[in-house]
């Protein structure tokens, strides 16, 4: 089976005259690193998300090779040089975030050796000469990997496709009553949910690698064709929305992070937003209606969500998918973002959010990382 692609193809089709869009606006200059963050903060938690397009580059060399001179998050001075492919260096460079979500790790569910290697890479000390404080905290990695033999086989049928990994700092696991789970409806390794229950609030934080719509077939557990990947994408939207609504009714604060595989509107695609084939426009309208207050006649229920980066940064241009093999900024989309429930936003649980849109932070991937700061108690600014 030919494997679907994750982001939109880099070759853009001419937009049909009915699909009128605003004049293209070039990407903004590379974003600065996120503001300094205190890893031991008791009131706020920083969460990163990154579609890494395969874990292999992060594990090919001994992990200690990358740590001789790690760059701080304030000294990235060469936007053209990729960051070292090291999970530990990333965590160190960004002040030991509470959570790092990875998508498209491309690990077989039976490949326990690689899973152990990821755990080691997340916890390797910077060097034997570093102080205990500089070595940083421990992390634990949780995997949600493909279990579907018909829809997630990969190019060689080995299951090394899709997959998400949630890397959580050790003190978060002891401070909160914590549960990391997947969902019954997902057998492709696309959804991991981190549930954190504190003294006065509880969070359900989703690590998402959403379905990309294509004309490829989607099959049942017995291999029968049920429709296309476009059909599966619409079902994925609906099922995710229903769970979010259910969780909020039960008193959870919901945060969705990851690669949504859809750019919300014309501000989120350069030089143009993808509108062809027409089903992609329908998929976008369905996603926006279910999660972001958009309109679609056939959407029967809606989750009242906030696109956090867009809410904070207004009409600013920022992108997360930069295809390799193309000049930086010549074709890009914002398909990775964070969505919170309106109640969480209105009650002051969100502090800030950003995109690390520069070539250095893209590293070996074709996506750049995103981040969000959330308060652990309401109005704790």
UniProtKB/TrEMBL annotation:
Q: What Gene3D superfamilies does the database record attribute to this sequence?
A: Endonuclease/exonuclease/phosphatase (3.60.10.10)
Site feature Transition state stabilizer: at which residues? 261
* Family listed: Belongs to the DNA repair enzymes AP/ExoA family.
**Cofactor binding note of this UniProt entry:** Probably binds two magnesium or manganese ions per subunit.
A GO biological process held by the record: base-excision repair
Q: Signal peptide position in this chain?
A: none
Single GO MF descriptor: DNA-(apurinic or apyrimidinic site) endonuclease activity
Domain Endonuclease/exonuclease/phosphatase intervals: 49-367
Give me the residues that bind Mg(2+), please.
51, 104, 259, 261, 366-367
Entry keywords, A to Z: Hydrolase, Magnesium, Manganese, Metal-binding
Q: Which residues make up the annotated site Interaction with DNA substrate?
A: 367
Q: In the UniProt entry, which residues are flagged as the active site?
A: 209, 259 (proton donor/acceptor), 367 (proton acceptor)
List GO terms (cellular component aspect).
Answer: nucleus
User: Required cofactors, per record?
Assistant: Mg(2+); Mn(2+)
Give the protein's recorded name: DNase I-like protein
Q: Which InterPro entries match?
A: AP_endonuc_1, EF_Hand_1_Ca_BS, Endo/exonu/phosph_ase_sf, Endo/exonuclease/phosphatase
- Keyword check for Metal-binding, yes or no: yes
The species this protein belongs to is Periconia macrospinosa
Which residue positions does UniProt flag as site: Important for catalytic activity? Answer: 336
